[in-house]
Amino acid sequence: MEPSTPSGPVDGWDRTSPPGPAGPEPEWPPGPPLGVENVVTLVVFAIIFALGALGNGLVIAVLARRRPGSARSPTNVFILNLSVADLAYLLFCVPFQATVYALPSWVLGSFLCKFTHYLFTVSMLVSIFTLSAMAVDRYVAIVHARRSPVLRVARNALRGVGLIWALALILAAPVAQNQRLVYSALGNLTFCWELWAEPGHKRLYVVATFVLGYLLPLLIICCCYAKVLNHLHKKLKNMSKKSEASKKKTAQTVLVVVVVFGISWLPHHVIHLWAEFGVFPLTPASFLFRITAHCLAYSNSSVNPIIYAFLSENFRQAYRQVFRCQLGSPTPLREAKDNRSRQDTPPSTNCTHV
C-alpha cells in the first residue's frame, strides 16, 4: 500500500496522484521531462535492488545449506522467511515501481497495478510479523530457557511462518481490491490509483494497517526485549562468558533489525495517515519527503543481510563458505582450536545465534 497515493510521487508537477480519496480527476498541466530528482531516485532504487537481491540471495543460500537429518533452528526459519519475503518484494515490486519515476503514465496493465501494490503491503506485514515472532522466540529462549527446548522447535516455527503469511495475505487483500487503472483524456495517460468507494472505509483500513502492521507489533517487540534485557541483567553473574556473549549478540542483532525496520517504515505510515486525516501539501519539500519515505521503505528489504554480516561472525563465515563453494575451492581449516569443531558444521546450524 503506497503512502498517500497508490503510485507516483506527490508534488506540484507530478501527474500521477489524485487530489483526494474521492475527488474529481485533476487537470494536471503538462509536466517537464524526467527531472534530476527522478533520476537520483532511480539510481537509488537500482542500488537497493542490486544489494538486496545479492544479500538476501546469500542469506537464503546460507540457511538452505544444512546437513541432512540436522534440525533447523527456529531463529533460522524466521530469518529465512524474512529474506524470502524481502527478495520477493525486491524482484516483483521495486522494478515495476521504478517506472512510476521514469514514465509519466502507468504502462504495466491492470494485473501488475494490483499485484505490485498488494505484494508491497504483504511484504511489509510479513516483515513486521516475522520480526515480532523473532522477538518472542528470543524471549522464550532467554527468559524461559528451561521450557525453550520444548517450545522452540522448527515445527512450531514453520507453523508460525504459515500463520504470518496467511494473516498478511488476508490483511493486504483490500489493497488489491481497490487498486485500479484510471484513464485521463488529458495527454492520453493511465494512472494506477487506490480508489475506494467509501473514503471512510479507506481511513479505517489505514488506521488498522498502522495499528496491526506497525504499532502493535513494535509494542510487542519492545515488551519482549525489555524482559530479555532485564533477565540478562539479573542473570549475568550465573552465566558462562560464552553463553552470555552468545545470547547478548543474538538479542543485539535482532534488536538492530527491529530498530531499522521501525525507522524505515515510520515515514510511510506518517505520510499515509497525513494524507487521509489531513491535507498533504503538494510542494517540492513534500515531494522530497515522499521520495525519502519510498527509499527508506524499499531499502529495508536490502539492509538486513548487511546487518547480519556486520554483527554476526557466524554469518560472515557462512558467507565466505558459500563463495568458496561457488568457486570450487575447499574450505580452509580454522586457525583457532575452539573453531575447529565448527568446520564440519553446516552454515545453517552455525547461524542459529545470529
UniProtKB/TrEMBL annotation:
<feature type="region of interest" description="Disordered">
    <location>
        <begin position="1"/>
        <end position="30"/>
    </location>
</feature>
<dbReference type="GO" id="GO:0007218">
    <property type="term" value="P:neuropeptide signaling pathway"/>
</dbReference>
<comment type="subunit">
    <text>Interacts with GRP39 AND HTR1A.</text>
</comment>
<dbReference type="GO" id="GO:0045944">
    <property type="term" value="P:positive regulation of transcription by RNA polymerase II"/>
</dbReference>
<keyword id="KW-0449">Lipoprotein</keyword>
<dbReference type="InterPro" id="IPR003906">
    <property type="entry name" value="GAL1_rcpt"/>
</dbReference>
<feature type="domain" description="G-protein coupled receptors family 1 profile">
    <location>
        <begin position="55"/>
        <end position="308"/>
    </location>
</feature>
<dbReference type="InterPro" id="IPR017452">
    <property type="entry name" value="GPCR_Rhodpsn_7TM"/>
</dbReference>
<keyword id="KW-0325">Glycoprotein</keyword>
<feature type="transmembrane region" description="Helical">
    <location>
        <begin position="39"/>
        <end position="64"/>
    </location>
</feature>
<feature type="compositionally biased region" description="Polar residues">
    <location>
        <begin position="344"/>
        <end position="354"/>
    </location>
</feature>
<keyword id="KW-0564">Palmitate</keyword>
<feature type="transmembrane region" description="Helical">
    <location>
        <begin position="250"/>
        <end position="267"/>
    </location>
</feature>
<dbReference type="GO" id="GO:0007204">
    <property type="term" value="P:positive regulation of cytosolic calcium ion concentration"/>
</dbReference>
<dbReference type="Pfam" id="PF00001">
    <property type="entry name" value="7tm_1"/>
</dbReference>
<feature type="compositionally biased region" description="Basic and acidic residues">
    <location>
        <begin position="334"/>
        <end position="343"/>
    </location>
</feature>
<dbReference type="InterPro" id="IPR000405">
    <property type="entry name" value="Galanin_rcpt"/>
</dbReference>
<keyword id="KW-0297">G-protein coupled receptor</keyword>
<feature type="transmembrane region" description="Helical">
    <location>
        <begin position="76"/>
        <end position="98"/>
    </location>
</feature>
<protein>
    <recommendedName>
        <fullName>Galanin receptor type 1</fullName>
    </recommendedName>
</protein>
<feature type="transmembrane region" description="Helical">
    <location>
        <begin position="118"/>
        <end position="136"/>
    </location>
</feature>
<feature type="transmembrane region" description="Helical">
    <location>
        <begin position="287"/>
        <end position="311"/>
    </location>
</feature>
<dbReference type="GO" id="GO:0051464">
    <property type="term" value="P:positive regulation of cortisol secretion"/>
</dbReference>
<feature type="compositionally biased region" description="Pro residues">
    <location>
        <begin position="18"/>
        <end position="30"/>
    </location>
</feature>
<feature type="transmembrane region" description="Helical">
    <location>
        <begin position="157"/>
        <end position="176"/>
    </location>
</feature>
<comment type="function">
    <text>Receptor for the hormone galanin. The activity of this receptor is mediated by G proteins that inhibit adenylate cyclase activity.</text>
</comment>
<dbReference type="GO" id="GO:0017046">
    <property type="term" value="F:peptide hormone binding"/>
</dbReference>
<keyword id="KW-1133">Transmembrane helix</keyword>
<feature type="region of interest" description="Disordered">
    <location>
        <begin position="330"/>
        <end position="354"/>
    </location>
</feature>
<keyword id="KW-1003">Cell membrane</keyword>
<dbReference type="GO" id="GO:0004966">
    <property type="term" value="F:galanin receptor activity"/>
</dbReference>
<feature type="transmembrane region" description="Helical">
    <location>
        <begin position="204"/>
        <end position="229"/>
    </location>
</feature>
<keyword id="KW-0807">Transducer</keyword>
<keyword id="KW-0472">Membrane</keyword>
<comment type="similarity">
    <text>Belongs to the G-protein coupled receptor 1 family.</text>
</comment>
<keyword id="KW-1015">Disulfide bond</keyword>
<keyword id="KW-0675">Receptor</keyword>
<dbReference type="GO" id="GO:0005886">
    <property type="term" value="C:plasma membrane"/>
</dbReference>
<dbReference type="InterPro" id="IPR000276">
    <property type="entry name" value="GPCR_Rhodpsn"/>
</dbReference>
<keyword id="KW-0812">Transmembrane</keyword>
